[in-house]
Write a structure and sequence with these properties.
The complex is a heterodimer of chains A (about 325) and B (about 325). Chain A is of the alpha/beta class. Chain A has a domain at about 5-225: Rossmann fold. Chain A has helices spanning about 50-60, 80-90, 110-120, 125-140, 145-150, 160-170, 190-205, 215-220, 240-245, 250-260, 275-280; strands spanning about 5-15, 25-35, 40-45, 65-70, 75, 90-95, 175-180, 210-215, 225-230, 235-240, 310-315, 315-320. In chain A, helix 3 packs parallel to helix 6. The longest helix of chain A is centred in the middle third of the chain and has 18 residues, at about 190-205. The two termini of chain A are about 30 Å apart. In chain B, strand 9 (about 220-225) and strand 10 form a beta hairpin. In chain B, the strands form two sheets. In chain B, strands 6-7-8-3-9-10-12-11 form an eight-stranded mixed β-sheet. A four-stranded antiparallel β-sheet of chain B has the order 2-1-4-5. Chain B contains nine helices and twelve strands. Classes of the chains: A alpha/beta (about 325), B alpha/beta (about 325). At the A-B interface, helix 6, helix 7, helix 8, helix 10 and helix 11 of A face helix 6, helix 7 and helix 9 of B.
């Protein structure tokens, strides 16, 4: 299958002041490579602070990378000329996590969903705008659309707001959408309907998603391939089926076993463990070698010394861990 | 043995648009040493119920009607501030949602804990420090973190500190309001483990409030499902999970997505949670219910015991 997005050795460091004169860096994304095939859902999963959101933003050129390249349809997005960049902006869109913050509270639904069209000069007149807005609302299931056109975000529920945000993202008929935790702020009873909508739009419009989530249940049901991130690095990647049903990296194993499962409740192991070993280290001061080694039950000598490289352990299933190879 | 009984409690908020019936005629009891999991979606009134029991409802909200009976004798809705001080934190404590907002960012952990102890009890400062240290140890926070500021701790560590603070005055009941919501799954599991362990060690009774029904089996003995200010189902954990009666509970359970389970179509409930100012008539769930029939929009169903230890408020039964 054709590759739509290719990310090579991407790094994004954020500087912070350590002392009066010294500077430190939070390595939010630290040498990450992956590719996304046309018409697939590629999932970036990991805990908060692992760099998945930053990766999504760099891939859209919302923030520049520190180093590394991002190819969209074979072209380096940091080297596009003006008209190419405009086309890229049309083709690549984003849906944010929090529909309470991603919509301008003073903007009516009709203006919110047609804003991208307006920016790209694709609206002829007032009537055209209304027509396009109505069509967009219909395609995200906000019907009858007359009921929603003139509303402000605060008059809508969370699910409705997220639909408006989705309508805005698809308004320019993009090829690629970064969906950054699009359902994690929503109530359980309406989560399913938004996921279903995203899937329907994907097949109807031939979309490709970079789906960012911390929820492995959602990832399992929605994505074709997955990459697990830990402290700015991809520790495992492959088809969702392979990675989640046969996880190789101890961190992936820990994540999967921690998902609350109503059928298999967690049973207290007895005794309060010291919280220290259970903590995620700070991204500003990550451990040397494999960043997971202080929490890893299988860590051995090499793990604290040498950073393991992501390598294909089985066809299409890569892992960055010294236990393999 | 019963330690807390809530009877026909109504807590309303006045707003310019009208009265928000956040808790609307809720009755249940909590046994000694038991954990009740209170589950519901955002805006269903579950936090208001918790705050009502703590008597922390501030205007424009107020407890309109009903009784909250602690230990068989004290009606918490009737007592004055002085009596309340003897109960709040010492008998009933609360672990709030969002550990970062609960702790004071400009004070060291130890100072905040000592202040709380001295406010409630006649102790010297050194005794209070000792007790704070002991409590932190109990929840798995290393002693050296005592002298740190909240922002220097990780999310999981902060949540542990908040739990330690709730336990400072040895309460019998702990109301935990979404204590793991902002946390990652691994940290969440550790905090749940901690709560189960503390309950066993200290003999606590816990009301565990959450929007995530999938974590309840790990923590609770009974489940209470709330929808639009009312309890729609209550029963033993296993019974409710294996044999949910209310269509809302079933909808919630069907909506859970788990890794490794066989593929299934995305399940959801149609529509949106109702507006609590103008809730639907009759059963408040009827506009979203796949089984609704004539009676449902007319008459409010009463919570009744359908099986021993399993009650439901739905016209489909009886």
């Amino acid at each position: 299958m054709e590759t739509l997005v290719e990310v090579n050795h991407l790094k994004k460091y954020f500087p912070f002041r350590k002392g009066l004169f010294s500077k430190g860096y939070v390595k939010a994304v630290d040498d990450v490579s992956f590719h996304i095939r046309k018409n697939e859902i590629f999932c970036l999963a990991g805990e908060s602070g692992c760099g998945k959101t930053t990766t999504g933003r760099v891939v859209l050129r919302l923030i520049p990378p520190t180093s590394g390249t991002i190819l969209f349809e074979g072209k380096d997005i940091m080297k596009l000329n003006k008209s190419e960049l405009k086309a890229f902006r049309r083709n690549a869109q984003i849906i944010f996590q929090d529909p309470y913050e991603s919509l301008n509270p003073r903007e009516r639904v009709v203006d919110a969903v047609t804003k991208p069209l307006e920016v790209h000069g694709l609206i002829r007149n007032r009537r055209d705008k209304l027509e396009q807005a109505s069509q967009l609302l219909e395609s995200v299931g906000l019907t009858p659309c007359e009921q929603f056109l003139d509303k402000y975000p605060h008059q809508l529920s969370g699910g409705q707001r997220q639909r408006v945000a989705i309508a805005r993202a698809i308004s320019l008929k993009p090829k690629f959408i970064v969906a950054d935790e699009p359902v994690s702020m929503l109530d359980l009873s309406i989560r399913g309907v938004i996921l279903k909508l995203l899937m329907e739009l994907k097949s109807k419009m031939g979309l490709t998603y970079l789906f960012i989530t911390h929820d492995l249940g959602v990832a399992w049901h929605i994505s074709d391939r997955i990459a697990i991130m830990y402290l700015g690095e991809i520790v495992e990647s492959g088809s969702t089926n392979d990675v989640l049903s046969n996880p190789l990296h101890p961190y992936t194993q820990l994540l999967i076993s921690s998902v609350p499962n109503p059928e298999k409740p967690i049973i207290a192991e007895g005794g309060v463990k010291s919280a220290v070993q259970l903590e995620v280290p700070s991204a500003a001061n990550p451990p040397p070698g494999c960043k997971f080694h202080p929490r890893c039950p299988y860590a051995f000598g090499k793990c604290s010394l040498e950073r393991p490289q992501l390598h294909e352990e089985k066809p299409g299933h890569a892992v960055a861990c010294h236990l393999y190879r | 043995m019963e330690i807390l009984r809530v009877e026909r409690l109504k807590t309303y908020y006045e707003s310019v648009r009208g009265t928000v019936k956040a808790v609307d005629d809720v009755s249940f009891n909590l046994h000694k040493g038991e954990t009740i999991g209170l589950v519901g979606e955002s805006g269903c009134g579950k936090s208001t119920l918790g705050l009502s029991i703590m008597r922390l409802i501030k205007p424009p909200g107020r407890i309109v009607e009903g009784r909250i009976v602690y230990d068989g004798k004290i009606d918490l809705t009737k007592i004055d501030y002085e009596e309340l001080r003897k109960i709040r934190w010492k008998e009933i404590a609360m672990v709030f949602q969002g550990a970062m907002n609960v702790l004071n960012p400009v004070h060291k952990i130890v100072d905040q804990m000592v202040e709380a102890i001295i406010f409630h009890e006649n102790t010297t400062k050194s005794e209070a420090v000792e007790r704070a240290a002991k409590m932190l140890q109990l929840v798995g926070v290393p002693i050296d973190r005592m002298k740190r500021y909240p922002f220097e701790l990780s999310g999981g560590m902060r949540q542990r500190v908040v739990i330690a603070m709730a336990l400072l005055c040895n309460p019998k009941i702990v109301i935990a309001d979404e204590p793991t919501t902002a946390l990652d799954v691994v940290t969440q599991r550790n905090i749940l483990n901690l709560l189960v362990e503390l309950k066993r060690k200290l003999g606590l009774s816990i009301i565990f409030i959450t929007h995530d029904i999938s974590i309840l089996p790990s923590i609770s003995d009974r489940i209470m499902v709330m929808y639009a200010g009312e309890i729609v189902e209550i029963g033993d954990l296993r019974e409710v999970m294996n044999n949910p009666l209310h269509p809302y509970t079933r909808g919630l359970l069907n909506s859970i997505l788990l890794p490794l389970e066989p593929p299934k179509p995305f399940s959801f409930l149609p529509g949106e949670p109702p507006d609590l100012i103008n809730p639907p008539s009759g059963c408040k769930f009827h506009p979203r219910c796949p089984y609704a029939f004539g009676k449902c929009s007319l008459e409010r169903p009463q919570l009744h015991e359908e099986k021993p230890g399993h009650a439901v408020a739905c016209h489909l039964y009886r």
